[in-house]
Amino acid sequence: MADVAQSARSFVPALNGPAALARSRGTLSLTLHDRLGVTRIASLREEGCLRVRFPRGAVAAPVEAVVMNTAGGLTGGDIIKQEFEWGEQARGAITTLTAEKIYRSLGSPVYVTTKIRIAANADVEWLPQETILFDRSDLDRTLDVEMSADATFLAVEIIVFGRTAMGETMTEGRLADRWRIRRNGRLIYADSLRLEGSPQTMLDLPAVGNGARAVATLLFVAHDAGARLEALRAVVGRVPDRSAASSWNGLLVARFLASDGAALRQNLLPALASLRGERALPSAWSC
What we know:
By secondary structure, this protein is of the alpha/beta class. 15% of the residues lie in helices and 46% in strands. A hairpin with a 2-residue loop joins strand 1 (25-35) and strand 2.
């Protein structure tokens, strides 16, 4: 009996070690097209922990696609791959059901890859809710967009470094975030953010975050993007935290810094309204 007990105990480290932990895998592929002025689902494939739902109906105009991670968060070794294709004249937004939480890693990064293809005259929005990074998390994320010259694309990404309202900080960890936007096959926007070691210390630097614990990027690509710059700057100039907007080469970019995620979201809302007009935000944003 003693030998059996010892043998059982010998398996405990292996069962609790990184190699034995279950990892989340999620793959999502969604194609939408326009038929007689209505955006419809052309194809949909869901695998692993990723699902997509349509709270306003699959044939709404514009359509609202809500991505859900049924794993309830991500940690080191998890892999998420999602692809979205919008046909000619398709209109709608992609969002997430809740904020995505990136938990402590035991050594491997979380890999999140998003690819979006946008055909002629399509109007597409990428509006995920916040990504919250916990202490010692490790996130490697890529957004690749291929769009037609006459398509319109609006994107927002919010990153929160610890939930300050709960006394959480991110004193150690890693973030690698890359955006690549191509129009008619030509690279028009490339943005790479990398924070490693102590993100909190780096964010405290005046030239990086000036003490911010939440950051956001807003990107708008359209034929009239430059004409909207002054209106956006007027809105951005009224927010209480640091923010700025610039425009060049048919695109518009705004950056936001804030002390926490709640403040940052409030700063973003008027900026989004200035670009989206009276169009309602995805319903998940008000949940």
